[in-house]
Specification:
The protein has 308 residues and is of the alpha+beta class. The chain is 27% helix and 27% strand.
Length: 308
């Protein structure tokens, strides 16, 4: 799509950060699969982001907003358009609001791990459930990330969104409609930043809780192999991982993609998996679970791009 040298030049002029053409996306996704994007662009602040998105919409260039690539599967043919990477929108600040509330302000590219480290350092409680979640703030908001009894919806107070009219709009919590692993928001809206309400706590208790959660993740999840986190959403009343394990699918392989032997709801990359392997394995899992348990699994990961 981006074959016009003038278009490429104008695209590059939108940002001061890197602009990479025909860039393989397997280098940027946690699963380690995916073909090239026509362009991968790194805006360094919200002004550059606004300029870039304005240009892409004016030129009718498809674009995909990209965080840490932890819940994303890119097909082997890559993405025809521009991938907008938000890693450099990484400002993080905090301050008191009254005696019992600490407001943490984070841009979309801030890794959740940085907020966890801040929680330990400043003895802030409320987001311990995010310990070990590998994503960044923007993706966590859009996915309503959660674990161990907590969800992002429980702590977010407002978000800033670049809407379809290219306006930066602040949306308060009462106007945000969260569902299980989803925020009801337009696909065309870009989450720019968020505020979270935490509370002062006891440092030793916070550290202990975070260590406990990380330890549980290490025991239950295949953290030593590349993966995209939970592949399927949990149906009502039973975890997807248990359904998959009860059908005997642990260890099932397609090429170098394998159903984790540690946790049934993870597909791991043993080294040189292709997206076709991962998607084929997902389809096999869905068919086996549907046929044996009469349950239709739904993907939790997002799949984008073109087949190779």
């Amino acid at each position: 799509m981006l074959h016009d040298p003038v278009l490429k030049e104008h695209l590059a002029s939108c940002v001061s950060g890197s602009v990479l053409f025909d860039e393989p996306l397997d280098r940027y996704t946690s699963m380690g699969v995916g073909g090239p994007a026509d362009a991968l662009v790194f805006p360094r602040n919200r002004e550059e982001l606004l300029k870039l998105i304005s240009f892409l919409r004016k030129e009718n260039v498809p674009f995909l907003v990209f965080g840490k690539g932890t819940n994303l599967i890119v097909r082997d043919g890559g993405y025809r358009g521009v991938v907008v990477a938000l890693q450099e929108l990484n400002q993080l600040s905090w301050g008191a609001r009254g005696e019992a509330e600490i407001i943490v302000r984070a841009e979309a590219g801030v890794p959740l791990a940085e907020i966890i480290q801040l929680s330990i350092k400043e003895s802030l409680t409320g987001m311990e459930f995010c310990a070990g979640i590998p994503g960044s703030v923007g993706g966590a908001i859009r996915m309503n990330a959660g674990a161990f009894g907590g969800e992002i919806k429980d702590v977010v107070t407002e978000i800033v969104v670049l809407n379809e009219r290219l306006e930066l709009v602040t949306v308060s919590r009462k106007d945000l409609h969260f569902e299980y692993r989803r925020l009801d928001i337009s696909d065309n809206a870009v989450i720019v930043s968020a505020e979270f309400a935490l509370s002062p706590g006891k440092g030793e208790l916070i550290s202990a809780k975070i260590s406990e959660i990380k330890s549980l993740r290490k025991r239950k999840h295949p953290l030593n192999l590349r993966n995209a986190g939970s592949i399927f959403r949990n149906p009502l009343n039973i975890p997807a991982g248990r359904l998959i394990e009860e059908t005997g699918l642990k260890g099932t392989r397609r090429g170098d993609a394998m159903v984790s032997e540690l946790h049934g709801n993870f597909i791991v990359n043993l080294g040189h998996a292709r997206t076709a392997d991962v998607i084929g394995l997902m389809e096999e899992i869905k068919c086996r679970v549907r046929d044996s348990r009469n349950v239709q699994l739904e993907a939790e990961v997002h799949i984008v791009g073109e087949d190779g």
